[in-house]
Amino acid sequence: MKRFIFICLFSVMGFAFAQTAESQTHFKNGLSLGAFWAFNQDKSGGDFEVGLPIIRGEETGFMLRNHFLFSGYGGDGFGQVSVGDKLLIGGYIPTTHFVAKPYGFVSTSLGFFASSPLEKTGFFSLPLIAEVHLGGGFEFQFIKNMSFAVEYGGMWSFSVGTDKFWSISNPTLSLGYRVYF
User: Is the pTM above the cut of 0.70?
Assistant: First the structure.
């Protein structure tokens, strides 16, 4: 699995370096659409996000963005879909050929959860699943309107609306990209 991650990482970065042959002076930093693949020891899946800048960071070097998330995950005998919100707080470091954006994030989501047929819980019924994510990330924008991002942090999932409360926490790694408009 580690080899696969490193191959993907270096392939994307190689593509990005090839695109910077022309000197780009302005990188877009407005509305963004993003897609991420996230995994931990219990589940894997994907996120789609729509991001809005609150503080862009070009002049101050400080960036604040809000992202609306739509997620789908699955694991051994269960699945979930959820909607959430992520706040990015970080830096904006422009250079001649790329922009680096180190950031911290906090994210919350609420969604539907379905487990194996033996437990007889289906989508659109209780219990619901709530999640809180905390972590950090790096975003590298080599192309005028597209960036590659890596995020790592902790996730706490817990049940809502049931007599049998449960919770689980795991470290989570996410790889993805954002397209800016």
Answer: yes
